[in-house]
Write a structure and sequence with these properties.
7-stranded mixed sheet, Aspartate Aminotransferase, domain 2, alpha/beta, 41% helix, 383 residues, Aspartate Aminotransferase, domain 1
Length: 383
Amino acid sequence: MDVYLDNAATTKLDERVLEKMKPYFTEKYGNASSIHHMGQESSVLLTKCKEEIAKRINGDPDNIIFTAGGTESNNMILKGVARANQGKGKHILVSSIEHASVLKPAEQLKKEGFDVELIPVNSGGFVELDQIKKMIRPETILISVMTVNNEIGTIQPVEQIARFARKNGIYFHTDAVQAIPYKDIDIKDWNVDFLSLSAHKFYGPKGVGLAYIDRKINIEPQVIGGGQEYGLRGGTYNLPSIVGMTEALKLIYQEKDEYINRVFELSQYLWKRIKEEIDEVAINGDPGNRTPNNLNVMFRRIEGEAILMDLSTKGICVSTGSACSAINLKASGVLQAIGLEDYHLNSNIRFSLGKFTTKEEIDYTVSCLVDTVKRLRSFTPIK
């Protein structure tokens, strides 16, 4: 049996989304920047997509900038805002559990002379507003805290932090890539200035996302050339994927309640069986205030990569954390940030469920997992 439990890394494209995209590959393929009738039809469609997305996130369509995904959006916002507003200050706060596409640009800005500080999290994996209050300065220009952590699924108090930032004249960005559909994104109510999304996290196509940018705020473009997106992001519009992202966003919110309830029941069932059938296990992060699709489990005295590879031979796809950091097999910075002991940092598996996950797949996974853990622990030197 093939089982896919790595939906936090990417999701399967919804077939209804694919059908919506198809005409824009072969029939309605005009460049949205062209002035002839095919180009103008594409341009009108582009505007409609922005309007549709803006309704879903309660934002302004003119503030939506289409990108190649969350990584580009995060880079665009972090570097663009910092470089354009350094006259106001060069102090930036970034949470210590951000995705690499926020942490790496922050490191780059540090090399350019910006004063970048990492906001610590508590043992549950949460950024605390009181900690931010202690760290801000008169020269603080930007705070970046993700909405939902990609590794342990914790839901951050971004509304509270964003309101505080706005009251203090500090720009606020949130990477909301993992938030859909578990949070109802509300740009205006949240008081966020900048937000990032990526379609392939909610059953849309890969290679497309958006940066929500309050265009009243100065931002330095990172990709220049054709003048698209008000000069903020050059490049020919990926219209089929933009259509796909719009449709995926519409569908996932239409079916939200049923989807969340089903995923919650399956993840609870998975954790119940793991606890009952395997010793020395624990959940990483807060067990309650997290997205229902995410279950990050520590298996003491075993390397997570060994579990992953053994399950893979049985047709089961899981991860050891971020798909990005896993490439380099580095210890998770998120798990370090929540205070895991060094000898537990590489003993973890992230199970991330999705709308195509079935109970039969969970049963098969647990059956294989029990055998895998038993076999690997039989020859571990760690007691």
